[in-house]
Amino acid sequence: SEVSGVMGKSDIQPKSMHRAKIWSDDVENLYRFQQAGYRDEVEYKQVKQVDVVECWPETGFIKKLQRRDNTFYYYNKQRECEDKDVHKVKVYMY
């Protein structure tokens, strides 16, 4: 089944987590992954079996993500994570 293929030895788990305090490009992209239902790029690539995440060339921000139910999230070139949402973003350490 698909589920057993996702779990396995290649399943990298984070060692710790803290919340973002100030906005940055990295926090912006984590915000986008977490909106789509993933921890971060590591988990997204494991679940979706993709090598590359589509980004805006101008800003480097994520352009689109596929959720676990296979619907797509599309994001703007500009910042979407507002200051009031920065503290909600989880930053994982591996």
Give the distance, in angstroms, between the N- and C-terminal Cα atoms. Answer: 28 Å
Average predicted confidence as pLDDT = 91
The whole-angstrom Rg is 14 Å
Please tell me the total number of domains. Answer: 1
Percentage beta strand: 5-15%
The string of secondary-structure elements, in order, is: HEHHEEHE
Strand numbers in spatial order across the main sheet: 1-4
The helicity comes to 25-40%
Q: How is the main sheet built?
A: 2 strands, antiparallel
Overall geometric form: globular
Global structural class: alpha+beta
- The total count of strands amounts to 4
How many helix segments? 4
Any low-confidence stretches, pLDDT <50, length ≥5? 1-9
Protein name: MEIG1 protein
Function: Essential for spermiogenesis.
Organism: Pitta sordida
Family: Belongs to the MEIG1 family.
Q: Explain this structure to me?
A:
It is a single chain. This protein is of the alpha+beta class and 94 residues long. The protein has helices at residues 2-6, 25-35, 41-48, 83-86; strands at 16-19, 64-66, 72-74, 90-93. The protein has a two-stranded antiparallel ribbon. Strands 2-3 form a two-stranded antiparallel ribbon. A hairpin with a 5-residue loop joins β2 and β3 (72-74). This is MEIG1 protein.
